[in-house]
Write a structure and sequence with these properties.
Elements: E1 9-12, H1 14-21, H2 27-38, E2 43-45, E3 56-62, E4 71-77, E5 81-85, H3 90-97, H4 101-113, E6 117-120, H5 121-129, E7 140-145, H6 149-160, E8 168-173, E9 179-181, H7 182-189, E10 196-199, E11 204-207, H8 209-216, E12 225-226
Parallel strand pairs: 7-8
Antiparallel strand pairs: 1-2, 1-5, 2-3, 3-4, 6-7, 8-9, 10-11, 11-12
Helix pairs in contact: 1-2, 3-4, 4-6, 6-7
Length: 231
């Protein structure tokens, strides 16, 4: 399970679930955890806390509307991970929800650019669990892997020119995992802002255009300016 990235899905074994459920939780949290455990639903890799040891993984459980969209922060031993996976693709979610040709065309166009759009956030979790996460103002959160800044530019231009039934949100994910909200990246590339937030499994950093160019070349940011208050 090495190399897990932020926003990847993981499954855990029965021992891990037993250890989690054995902790002191309130009644609502116990109900959420019981549902997740019984149905073997996945957890999501989130930003790792600095105090977390190397043999542990910080994961999240975002509950649906019936539990007030409560978010549970959990820590599991990496030895108890049984599988990792990605969120469903845009094509899968669009077909299941009969979103029509615009979403399918977007999926195909992104695929032709060399990236596979994955749906996370409320749409992704509703697709995974069958539970109710969506409301009238829910955005469509897409995760889009790119291999260069030029490719990122083409992807942001396509997203900006596409009209779907809901607002398109989400992130451009560079090699090795650093991610930038695509709308923020578009503003940076258009000169409308001088810095953007870069998120990965271990930190949140501010990055300039030159920093982002380096990310597009597959480099890591040196001496990042951390923003610990954000998540």
């Amino acid at each position: 399970m090495k190399g897990l990235l932020r926003n990847q899905l993981v499954s855990i074994d029965e021992r891990a679930w037993a250890q989690i459920e054995d902790r002191a939780w309130d009644a609502e949290a116990q109900e959420i955890l019981a549902h997740w455990c019984t149905n073997r639903l996945p957890l999501v890799v989130c930003r790792q806390r600095t105090e977390t040891s190397s043999d542990q993984l910080c994961v999240g459980l975002p509950a649906p509307q019936q539990w007030s969209k409560r978010r549970l922060a959990l820590t599991v031993n990496v030895d108890h991970l049984t599988a990792c996976a990605a969120f469903p693709t845009l094509m899968q979610v669009a077909q299941a929800n009969h979103w029509g040709p615009a979403a399918l065309d977007l999926s195909e166009a992104l695929s032709n650019m060399g990236t596979q759009a994955h749906v996370y956030g409320s749409h992704g979790w509703q697709s995974l669990t069958g539970l109710s996460y969506l409301h009238a103002e829910s955005d469509l959160d897409l995760s889009l892997g790119v291999t260069s800044l030029a490719m990122a530019l083409k992807v942001t231009q396509l997203l900006a020119s596409t009209q779907l039934h809901c607002r398109i949100d989400g992130e451009i994910v560079f090699s090795q995992g650093p991610a930038i909200a695509w709308r923020e990246l578009q503003q940076l590339l258009q000169g409308q802002t001088s810095q953007v937030l870069v998120k990965d499994r271990h930190s949140i950093r501010l990055a300039s255009l030159e920093d982002v160019r380096r990310l597009g070349d597959g480099a890591q940011l040196a001496d990042p300016e951390a923003v610990p208050a954000l998540s």
